[in-house]
Design brief:
By secondary structure, this protein is α+β, with helices and mostly antiparallel strands. It is built from 13 helices and five strands.
């Protein structure tokens, strides 16, 4: 089943949709500017209101300062105590400070500044008269002050000050009223304009919604068709994956068979030829030992090279098909390979193998033993190359239902992405060997979250009608009823001294 991908360029957004989007955006921008302008107007009105309030407060405070100074002066006149003159002495600088602040607040109102100048003149004149009255009191006494009060016009001066303050407050309130009315007029216009803009925006949005809804329905139909195509594709991928998995397992089986055939040919044919050549060289070397010592020495070196070649041939044969696996069983083969691993890598490798594993492996089928050995072989090879471990343990245990293999190291471990999706051919090969036997292979962190643990679980399923042939796991293994499997001595559950592949080759 084949799928084609449309590589044609996608169509651009239709022009009417683009215009609707632009129109809606412009309306919203205009509405935003209108809101910003209204906000600025409101802030200006609030500032004017606050300014008017501050002007009124300072005018009232100015009036209070003058009245307080006048009251303190009268208290001084009646009591004669200098303590009453405190407000009178400080009134001049305080009133000047208030006039300075009022000039700043009324800087944008020339008429108010004119009234403020008149008010300042009246206040200064009032303060001057108060100062003269105090001096007269000090030199002439209270009687002189009474005479002056009869002919003076102090009351009218104070009334003028109050009147000017009231006029200024009223003018400020009228200014505020005019500005507030202008602001409310503008605000009403802004509301009308905003409502109109919002109405247009709603119309545009409704039109845009209709277009989006139509596009959504079309897209939903396209997604449904795509989902159907994806489901068909997933089904096809699953079928292809299963076919590839079956092919991979078949290739593993063929590979093992080819390795067995090749190891036998190397052992039977090449081994016999090399042995014959070694015997001929030894015979010729003995004959030339006395007459041609130089030639004898050369033949000795040739024989040594031939011995190395024989050793190489034996190592190749052992890698292709361990002889211990066929002769002594899975237990001896694994322990021998672990000893060989320790000799080559100088990393201790402990083994813990159940005593009846050989009987189970042979009773199940020959593919179980070679698969478990290959998984151990590949695991130790990876550890020696990449793990940088200081200790390795290989455990092979068996229950009534499952055979479990664990290879644990304390090295640097495998990256998390490699654990989730292993791309190494070795890891994939181990997983396929486990699947070939109907089992599973998991890769996780080792003990104390250090190193790596490769764990294999193989179910011990047996054919119908042969349940009685299942070995007793609580006793040494016995062969099934056909009698073809000899009973083997149990393997140890601790590191033991087993003949290595090198020793067996010798």
């Amino acid at each position: 089943m084949y799928f084609t991908v449309d590589t044609a360029p996608q169509h651009k957004l239709p022009i009417y949709k683009t215009l609707l989007c632009i129109t809606c955006a412009l309306i919203l921008i205009a509405n935003g500017f209108s809101l910003y302008h209204n906000l600025q107007s409101l802030k200006a009105a609030n500032a004017q209101l606050a300014q008017t309030a501050r002007v009124a407060e300072r005018l009232q405070y100015l009036n209070v300062l003058v009245l307080d100074a006048e009251s303190s002066m009268r208290g001084y006149f009646t009591s004669g105590r200098e303590a009453y003159l405190g407000p009178t002495r400080t009134v001049a600088p305080e009133t000047e400070a208030e006039f300075a602040e009022l000039e700043k607040l009324l800087a944008d109102s020339p008429s108010q500044l004119k009234n403020l100048a008149q008010l300042r003149s009246q206040v200064r004149r009032k303060l001057s008269l108060m100062a003269e009255a105090i001096e007269v009191y000090r030199h002439g006494g209270l009687a002189e002050i009474v005479n002056i009060a009869r002919v003076s016009d102090e009351r009218s001066a104070m009334d003028e000050i109050r009147l000017l303050a009231v006029i200024m407050v009223q003018e400020q309130n009228e200014t505020l009223k005019k500005r507030s009315e202008r602001f409310y007029d503008e605000y009403r216009k802004a509301i009308v304009l905003g409502m109109g803009i919002n109405a247009v925006a709603i119309v545009v949005l409704i039109a845009f919604y209709q277009q989006v809804r139509r596009s959504f329905m079309n897209r939903a139909a396209a997604e449904q068709a795509l989902q159907s195509a994806n489901e068909n594709l997933e089904s096809t991928v699953e079928q292809r994956t299963e076919q590839l998995s079956v092919l991979s397992r078949h290739l593993i089986s063929i590979s093992e068979e080819e390795k067995v055939r090749l190891s036998r040919e190397l052992h039977d044919e090449m081994g016999a030829n090399l042995t014959s050549i070694s015997m001929d060289i030894a015979a010729v070397m003995n004959q030339l030992q006395k007459t041609e010592p130089a030639l004898a020495q050369q033949l000795k070196r040739a024989r040594a090279t031939l011995v190395d070649t024989v050793e190489m041939k034996r190592r190749i044969i052992e890698n292709l098909r361990p002889s211990l696996l066929d002769n002594l069983g899975l237990c001896a083969a694994i322990e021998s390979y672990c000893d060989e691993f320790t000799r080559l890598s100088s990393v201790p490798c402990d083994t813990d193998i159940a005593g009846h594993i050989d009987g189970v492996a042979k009773w199940r089928d020959n593919s179980l033993a070679i698969a478990l050995f290959r998984i151990v072989q590949e695991s130790l090879t990876n550890i020696r190359k990449y793990a940088k471990a200081s200790h390795v343990s290989v455990t092979l245990q068996c229950s009534e239902e499952t055979l479990t293999l664990r290879v644990i190291d304390d090295g640097v471990g495998i990256a998390s992405n490699t654990i989730v999706k292993p791309m190494s051919h070795g890891l994939l090969g181990m997983r396929e060997r486990a699947l070939l036997l109907g089992g599973t292979l998991t890769i996780r962190r080792g003990r104390n979250d250090q190193g790596t643990c490769i764990e294999v679980h193989i179910p011990l399923r047996h054919a119908p009608g042969k349940a009685a042939a299942m070995p007793d796991f609580n006793s040494p293994p016995r062969p099934p009823a056909d009698g073809h499997i000899p009973s083997l001595p149990p393997c140890s559950t601790r590191p033991r001294t087993a003949p290595s592949l090198h020793d067996q080759a010798q």
